[in-house]
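Maltose/maltodextrin transport system permease protein
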Amino acid sequence: MLAVLVLALLLGGAALIGWGLSLLVAQAVPTAPPYLILVFIVVALLLLMPVVGRLVPWIANWYYLFPAIVFLAAFTILPIVLTVNYAFTNYNAVNSGNPDSAARTAATLSADRRVVTLQETPEAASVREYLRCRAESCAGDTIVLFDEEASVPVRARIASVNGDAVTLAAPLPGTLEVANATRLNRISRVGLANFQEIFGKASRALWPVFIWTVVFAFATVVLNAVAGLILGILLYNKRLKGRNVYRTLLFLPWAIPAVISVQMWVALFNQQFGIVNKTLGLLGITAIPWLGDPLWAKVSILLVNLWLGFPYMMTATISALATINDDLYEAASIDGASRWQQVQAITLPLLRASFTPILLSGFAFNFNNFGIIYLLTKGGPAQEGREATAQSTDILLSWGYNTAFSSGGGQNYALASAIALIIFFLTLAISLVNFRAAGVFEEARK
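Structure:
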């Protein structure tokens, strides 16, 4: 733990140095590429590692942990920190921290290159309102300036505002010929506003989506487990002729990539041209709106997920049955027990220990099973009284995805981050219940 702490401090120090150098370079050369921060961090690491090695000689034996810490920080810790941070901001497609190209206005620069005069302030009565300044004098805020080609925006710090004239904190470089100016769409703190919005509209999004997520995960696990258990027990019978052929055929749905399988099912479930409804029509049954009705869409998801998931449960059953001693069945047969009685008294009780962690992990997986929802229904069909991002078959994860990345959600990354935090705490609570049910805490105490 001490070695991990030292390596983490080393990485943090290099990151701070790289960040500081990148800020200095950005001020001196506004056109510098952003990836320079990574170059600075790597160089700082190469310089700091020998220094730390001399101060703490034994740390050299632990440098092999450094790649793992870097990947952990980059792909786990940093996303978590950013998600938590964005959940309390107004970060979205508009408030993205980038210049507002829609509010660009013509501007001129004074001879001393310190005063920018705006010709007009679109959709605003004053320069302060136009720039959305945080202070009355606009001191410390930012204005974005462009040349005639508007190729590279230059951000300048404001010292004060007087009428239409904006005085900058420092003169602009002589190479910039100012032609246009605009404001910066800042990312600002909003406190608990995102969570208040989520719970304020809970009846239209949170609760229906959460209930369906739990039902979907639980029903999937039950259906897949029952189907896999029955098929596994049947195919484990050594007297069954051609059982290896049956195993191979039933294993194919698991071997085929889900992306291909789900797209195939989308075609099969087509209400007008799908083979499922064509077959039902031959039997005199009216065409079923498999993917066009909220209830039937949910049934379709469970059926397709059954098709994708039962081979895993079947394989797990066959593997678990191989660990049961055949002498138990022989003794039960001698005592006159029927095949069904043997399954009840021997097979199912002995499979319980093996299946409990499988079922719990299956529930956790399907609780966040975004793929089947997105590929089969994309969360639809639409349902009256629900949010555009939380339709009839959306689960919590797809709701967050729609909020962050679809046009219907306004690309509201802050609200999606708040949803992600709610999902985290719900998943954590469910995992604790699962661990308790599986006896994990009792095993840890032993």
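The mean pLDDT is 88.
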